[in-house]
Amino acid sequence: MTSVGPEAGFAADARPACGSCGTVYDPAAGDPGRDVPPGTPFGGLPDYWRCPGCGGPQHGFTVVAPPGADPMDLRVAALTASYRLIAERDMAGVPICNAALSVEALGFRPHGPGWIGCVIAPWFLNAVLIPRDPALWEDRRDGDKLEVGLPSGAYRFTAARVGVLGTLAVIPLASAMNVFADQQDARGGAVLALDHLMRNPQPAPQPEPPPASDADAAKPALSRRSLFGGGRR
Fold first, then answer.
1. pLDDT mean across residues, the chain
2. What is this structure's pTM?
């Protein structure tokens, strides 16, 4: 069995332990002393919550993953669960949400310091870069800009802290979600946008040489003797 970091977010009954001091968070008990009621899953902890034992950050907690578990799949599952919780807890009925859409992650693949893909939610469509090391951008605040190089060029992503995952880099791909008729429509937009971001730029087409004029066609071709003999005859 392997200990992994912020993957606890996708299991409501997960009891992760702090990697620094060993303190275990029990969702059944919560943490009433820090305004966390019993029954709160680790993925539902407020951003301000830190380890009661040593003050360590949420991303320092670990759970046990099955042997051979793919870290990318675990992180993406945690990300999806975190946004689903936000959708249910904070965004239900908010006017900017498209009720025809649900939280879904797609297209994630390794890139640079982590994994990049798209996340669809009723209120956004973002490209998201999840760092392998949750502490990579620990010193960045929400809204800070992060320069990220992609195959298609360099982009300014925005830092966004998501509880158990630490700080992610995100870039919006749609200005309003009501442009999508349904989930399938949003998936199509996400795939097109991600394909654009991750595609190497094509070289500019070379201009066609001008057609030879009649005068050029009448000129004799250079012989080897004239070429290497300085054109002397």
1. 83
2. 0.67
